[in-house]
Write a structure and sequence with these properties.
About 40% of the residues are buried. A 6-stranded mixed beta sheet has the order 6-7-8-3-9-10, with helices on both faces. The chain is globular. It has 10 helices and 10 strands. The model has no long low-confidence stretch (mean pLDDT about 90). By secondary structure, the protein is α/β, with parallel strands linked by helices.
Length: about 250
Protein backbone atom coordinates (compact mmCIF):
# COMPACT_ATOMS: atom_id res chain seq x y z
CA UNK A 1 0.00 0.00 0.00
CA UNK A 2 2.96 2.32 0.57
CA UNK A 3 5.79 2.23 -1.94
CA UNK A 4 8.80 4.55 -1.83
CA UNK A 5 11.17 4.55 -4.80
CA UNK A 6 14.53 6.34 -4.53
CA UNK A 7 12.84 8.90 -2.28
CA UNK A 8 15.16 11.85 -1.65
CA UNK A 9 14.85 15.18 0.14
CA UNK A 10 17.59 17.82 0.09
CA UNK A 11 17.71 21.08 2.00
CA UNK A 12 20.35 22.97 0.08
CA UNK A 13 23.50 20.87 0.27
CA UNK A 14 22.15 18.79 3.17
CA UNK A 15 20.55 15.46 2.25
CA UNK A 16 17.88 14.67 4.84
CA UNK A 17 16.55 11.55 3.06
CA UNK A 18 18.89 9.75 0.69
CA UNK A 19 17.27 7.65 -2.06
CA UNK A 20 15.37 5.27 0.21
CA UNK A 21 13.28 2.36 -1.10
CA UNK A 22 10.53 0.76 0.97
CA UNK A 23 7.40 -1.28 0.35
CA UNK A 24 4.73 -1.69 3.04
CA UNK A 25 2.00 -4.13 1.92
CA UNK A 26 -1.66 -4.28 3.03
CA UNK A 27 -2.26 -5.66 6.50
CA UNK A 28 1.15 -4.72 7.88
CA UNK A 29 2.05 -2.61 10.90
CA UNK A 30 5.41 -1.21 9.87
CA UNK A 31 7.78 0.47 12.31
CA UNK A 32 10.05 3.30 11.17
CA UNK A 33 12.82 4.02 13.67
CA UNK A 34 15.89 6.21 13.83
CA UNK A 35 17.82 8.73 15.94
CA UNK A 36 16.83 12.38 16.08
CA UNK A 37 17.54 14.03 12.75
CA UNK A 38 17.78 10.73 10.88
CA UNK A 39 15.03 11.63 8.39
CA UNK A 40 11.98 9.92 9.91
CA UNK A 41 9.60 12.86 10.09
CA UNK A 42 10.77 14.21 6.74
CA UNK A 43 10.00 10.85 5.14
CA UNK A 44 6.55 10.62 6.74
CA UNK A 45 5.68 14.16 5.67
CA UNK A 46 6.63 13.33 2.09
CA UNK A 47 4.39 10.25 2.26
CA UNK A 48 1.55 12.42 3.56
CA UNK A 49 2.08 14.96 0.78
CA UNK A 50 3.07 17.77 3.15
CA UNK A 51 6.62 17.98 1.79
CA UNK A 52 7.59 17.69 -1.86
CA UNK A 53 10.46 15.26 -2.53
CA UNK A 54 13.57 16.51 -4.27
CA UNK A 55 13.41 13.32 -6.34
CA UNK A 56 11.90 9.84 -6.22
CA UNK A 57 8.32 8.61 -5.93
CA UNK A 58 5.68 8.03 -3.27
CA UNK A 59 2.78 5.71 -4.12
CA UNK A 60 -0.23 5.11 -1.89
CA UNK A 61 -2.32 2.16 -3.00
CA UNK A 62 -0.62 2.29 -6.40
CA UNK A 63 -1.38 6.00 -6.86
CA UNK A 64 1.53 8.41 -7.32
CA UNK A 65 1.07 11.25 -4.86
CA UNK A 66 2.87 13.70 -7.19
CA UNK A 67 0.67 13.08 -10.25
CA UNK A 68 -2.61 12.41 -8.42
CA UNK A 69 -2.36 13.96 -4.94
CA UNK A 70 -6.09 13.95 -4.24
CA UNK A 71 -6.46 10.31 -5.22
CA UNK A 72 -3.48 9.25 -3.10
CA UNK A 73 -4.44 11.35 -0.08
CA UNK A 74 -8.02 10.03 -0.17
CA UNK A 75 -6.57 6.67 0.93
CA UNK A 76 -4.49 8.18 3.72
CA UNK A 77 -4.86 9.17 7.35
CA UNK A 78 -2.03 11.11 9.03
CA UNK A 79 -1.21 11.49 12.73
CA UNK A 80 1.56 14.13 13.05
CA UNK A 81 3.99 14.52 15.93
CA UNK A 82 2.71 18.06 16.54
CA UNK A 83 -1.03 18.11 15.94
CA UNK A 84 -2.74 21.26 14.76
CA UNK A 85 -6.45 21.59 15.49
CA UNK A 86 -8.80 24.50 14.92
CA UNK A 87 -9.38 25.61 18.49
CA UNK A 88 -12.69 27.38 17.84
CA UNK A 89 -14.35 24.11 16.76
CA UNK A 90 -15.78 21.61 19.18
CA UNK A 91 -14.37 18.07 19.17
CA UNK A 92 -17.41 16.79 17.29
CA UNK A 93 -17.23 19.63 14.77
CA UNK A 94 -13.54 18.94 14.13
CA UNK A 95 -14.18 15.27 13.33
CA UNK A 96 -17.11 16.26 11.12
CA UNK A 97 -14.86 18.78 9.36
CA UNK A 98 -12.11 16.19 8.71
CA UNK A 99 -14.60 13.64 7.38
CA UNK A 100 -16.02 16.33 5.11
CA UNK A 101 -12.60 16.90 3.58
CA UNK A 102 -12.82 13.32 2.34
CA UNK A 103 -16.36 13.76 1.04
CA UNK A 104 -17.97 11.86 3.90
CA UNK A 105 -20.97 13.07 5.87
CA UNK A 106 -24.25 11.92 7.33
CA UNK A 107 -25.33 9.48 10.01
CA UNK A 108 -22.52 6.97 9.39
CA UNK A 109 -19.87 9.60 10.02
CA UNK A 110 -21.68 10.93 13.09
CA UNK A 111 -21.89 7.41 14.52
CA UNK A 112 -18.22 6.71 13.77
CA UNK A 113 -17.13 10.00 15.36
CA UNK A 114 -19.13 9.23 18.51
CA UNK A 115 -17.60 5.76 18.72
CA UNK A 116 -14.07 7.11 18.40
CA UNK A 117 -14.61 9.85 20.98
CA UNK A 118 -16.14 7.35 23.38
CA UNK A 119 -13.23 4.95 22.83
CA UNK A 120 -10.78 7.65 23.95
CA UNK A 121 -12.96 9.00 26.81
CA UNK A 122 -13.79 12.21 24.94
CA UNK A 123 -17.56 11.74 24.69
CA UNK A 124 -18.42 14.20 27.46
CA UNK A 125 -16.16 16.77 25.77
CA UNK A 126 -17.59 16.37 22.28
CA UNK A 127 -19.45 19.71 22.38
CA UNK A 128 -16.66 21.65 24.10
CA UNK A 129 -14.29 23.90 22.16
CA UNK A 130 -10.91 22.33 21.42
CA UNK A 131 -9.20 25.31 23.07
CA UNK A 132 -10.33 23.84 26.41
CA UNK A 133 -8.73 20.44 25.70
CA UNK A 134 -5.51 19.33 27.39
CA UNK A 135 -2.52 18.27 25.27
CA UNK A 136 -3.38 14.61 25.76
CA UNK A 137 -7.00 15.18 24.79
CA UNK A 138 -5.92 16.98 21.62
CA UNK A 139 -3.67 14.06 20.75
CA UNK A 140 -6.57 11.63 21.19
CA UNK A 141 -8.76 13.84 19.00
CA UNK A 142 -6.16 13.97 16.22
CA UNK A 143 -5.84 10.17 16.39
CA UNK A 144 -9.62 9.91 16.08
CA UNK A 145 -9.56 12.23 13.07
CA UNK A 146 -7.12 9.92 11.27
CA UNK A 147 -9.55 7.01 11.61
CA UNK A 148 -12.86 8.82 11.12
CA UNK A 149 -12.89 8.48 7.31
CA UNK A 150 -11.66 4.84 7.43
CA UNK A 151 -8.56 5.23 5.25
CA UNK A 152 -6.71 2.28 3.79
CA UNK A 153 -3.36 3.60 5.04
CA UNK A 154 -2.46 5.47 8.24
CA UNK A 155 0.91 7.17 8.75
CA UNK A 156 1.80 7.93 12.37
CA UNK A 157 4.60 10.09 13.74
CA UNK A 158 5.22 9.50 17.47
CA UNK A 159 1.69 8.37 18.44
CA UNK A 160 2.33 8.03 22.18
CA UNK A 161 3.30 11.65 22.91
CA UNK A 162 1.02 13.09 25.59
CA UNK A 163 -1.10 9.97 26.02
CA UNK A 164 -1.78 8.33 29.38
CA UNK A 165 -1.15 4.57 29.83
CA UNK A 166 -4.81 3.64 29.27
CA UNK A 167 -4.96 5.59 26.00
CA UNK A 168 -1.68 4.05 24.84
CA UNK A 169 -3.12 0.57 25.41
CA UNK A 170 -6.29 1.50 23.51
CA UNK A 171 -4.27 2.96 20.63
CA UNK A 172 -2.07 -0.13 20.35
CA UNK A 173 -5.10 -2.42 20.32
CA UNK A 174 -6.71 -0.19 17.67
CA UNK A 175 -3.59 -0.41 15.50
CA UNK A 176 -3.52 -4.21 15.79
CA UNK A 177 -7.19 -4.56 14.89
CA UNK A 178 -6.92 -2.12 12.00
CA UNK A 179 -4.08 -4.03 10.36
CA UNK A 180 -5.79 -7.36 11.11
CA UNK A 181 -8.63 -6.12 8.89
CA UNK A 182 -6.22 -5.61 6.00
CA UNK A 183 -5.30 -1.94 6.40
CA UNK A 184 -1.75 -0.59 6.54
CA UNK A 185 -0.06 1.43 9.29
CA UNK A 186 3.41 2.97 9.10
CA UNK A 187 4.54 4.22 12.50
CA UNK A 188 7.54 6.22 13.62
CA UNK A 189 8.31 6.01 17.32
CA UNK A 190 11.12 6.34 19.86
CA UNK A 191 9.33 3.81 22.10
CA UNK A 192 11.36 0.77 21.08
CA UNK A 193 9.47 -1.76 23.20
CA UNK A 194 6.25 -0.72 21.47
CA UNK A 195 7.84 -1.15 18.05
CA UNK A 196 9.26 -4.54 19.00
CA UNK A 197 5.95 -5.87 20.35
CA UNK A 198 3.61 -4.28 17.78
CA UNK A 199 5.32 -4.16 14.41
CA UNK A 200 5.40 -6.91 11.80
CA UNK A 201 8.51 -5.39 10.25
CA UNK A 202 10.82 -2.52 11.17
CA UNK A 203 13.09 -0.22 9.19
CA UNK A 204 15.90 1.69 10.89
CA UNK A 205 16.95 4.91 9.18
CA UNK A 206 20.27 6.58 9.98
CA UNK A 207 21.71 9.72 8.37
CA UNK A 208 18.99 9.62 5.72
CA UNK A 209 19.65 6.03 4.63
CA UNK A 210 17.96 2.75 5.53
CA UNK A 211 20.43 0.93 7.79
CA UNK A 212 18.30 -2.23 8.05
CA UNK A 213 14.78 -3.45 7.32
CA UNK A 214 12.95 -6.63 8.21
CA UNK A 215 11.40 -8.70 10.96
CA UNK A 216 13.06 -8.85 14.37
CA UNK A 217 14.82 -12.07 13.37
CA UNK A 218 16.11 -10.45 10.20
CA UNK A 219 17.29 -7.38 12.09
CA UNK A 220 19.17 -9.60 14.53
CA UNK A 221 20.92 -11.23 11.59
CA UNK A 222 21.75 -7.84 10.02
CA UNK A 223 23.21 -6.65 13.32
CA UNK A 224 25.45 -9.75 13.35
CA UNK A 225 24.22 -10.84 16.74
CA UNK A 226 24.85 -7.43 18.23
CA UNK A 227 21.97 -8.01 20.64
CA UNK A 228 18.70 -9.85 21.01
CA UNK A 229 16.52 -6.84 21.84
CA UNK A 230 15.58 -3.97 19.56
CA UNK A 231 17.39 -1.42 21.71
CA UNK A 232 20.74 -3.21 21.33
CA UNK A 233 20.16 -3.72 17.59
CA UNK A 234 19.16 -0.07 17.16
CA UNK A 235 22.27 1.22 18.94
CA UNK A 236 24.56 -1.09 16.98
CA UNK A 237 23.09 -0.20 13.59
CA UNK A 238 23.09 3.55 14.25
CA UNK A 239 26.65 3.55 15.62
CA UNK A 240 25.65 4.78 19.06
CA UNK A 241 27.27 3.69 22.29
CA UNK A 242 25.47 5.26 25.24
CA UNK A 243 27.76 3.71 27.85
CA UNK A 244 30.91 4.98 26.11
CA UNK A 245 29.44 8.47 25.63
CA UNK A 246 28.42 8.60 29.29
CA UNK A 247 31.92 7.69 30.45
CA UNK A 248 33.41 10.33 28.13
CA UNK A 249 31.17 12.99 29.70
CA UNK A 250 31.97 11.94 33.27
CA UNK A 251 35.70 11.72 32.59
CA UNK A 252 35.92 15.08 30.81
Amino acid sequence: MIKLTNLTKNYGKFCAVDAINLHVPPGELFGFLGPNGAGKTTTLRMIAGILKPTSGRVQIGGIDIATNPIGAKSKLGFIPDRPFIYEKLTGAEFLRFVAGLYGQEGTDVEHRARELMALFDLEEWRDELVESYSHGMRQKLIVSSAFVHRPEVIVVDEPHVGLDPKSIKILRDLFKEYTRRGHTIMMSTHTLDAAESLCDRIAIIHAGKIAACGTMDELRADAQHGGTGLEQIFLKLTGQNAARDLMDVLDA
